Amino acid sequence: MIKTIIAVLVVFPMFSLGQKLTVVADDPRSKEAFIRQLKYDGYKIDSIDFDYSLNYFVTGQYKLVAFKKPYQAYATITDKKGKEITRSKEVKTNPAALNGFNAAYGMANMIIKRYLPGMLSQLKK
């Protein structure tokens, strides 16, 4: 009986605690980068039953000659009801040949390094 109680007290929190997130992004490489970082930080990824949703938005278009950075991106975390809990600052960049003129993945990595830890710290434990 004591072994059962100990097993329940030790094993149950491993499966029941922890927040579940889903990642919404148009670019598959960016989505995978966010998922990889969230798993590394100990969050569970579930696209059906989730507590919070991390949304990644990219705006802009490629221009051959641009005097300002044509791509902007930001991330938000919303709860189940769609209420925005936190938002990252907007990141701007130019496309480059190294990333196939797709700046979304590079901006996702900038958001992950600069703003994601602060955003995740605002979630309820």
Overview of the molecule:
- With 125 residues, the protein is an alpha/beta fold.
- The protein has one domain: Double Stranded RNA Binding Domain (2-Layer Sandwich), CATH 3.30.160.
- Helices cover 36% and strands 26% of the residues.
- Strands 1, 2, 3, 4, 5 and 6 form a six-stranded mixed beta sheet that branches.
- Strand 4 (71-79) and strand 5 (84-87) form a beta hairpin.
- It is elongated.
- Residues 5-16 have low confidence and may be disordered.
At the first level of CATH, the class is: Alpha Beta
| Major beta sheet summary | 6 strands, mixed
Helix content bin = 25-40%
Given as residue ranges, the uncertain stretches (5+ residues, pLDDT < 50) are 5-16
Helix and strand content put the structural class at alpha/beta
Report the sheet-strand fraction: 25-35%
Q: How many structurally independent domains?
A: 1
Give the total of beta strands: 6
Number of helices: 4
Provide mean pLDDT, rounded: 85
Q: What is the CATH T-level topology?
A: Double Stranded RNA Binding Domain
Oligomer: single chain
CATH architecture: 2-Layer Sandwich
Cα-to-Cα separation, first versus last residue: 31 Å
SSE run = HEHEEEEEHH
Write down the overall geometry: elongated
Computed Rg: 18 Å
Layout of SSEs?
Layout: H1 2-16, E1 20-24, H2 28-40, E2 44-45, E3 52-60, E4 71-79, E5 84-87, E6 91-93, H3 104-114, H4 116-121
Parallel strand pairs: 1-2, 1-3
Antiparallel strand pairs: 3-4, 4-5, 4-6
Helix pairs in contact: 2-3
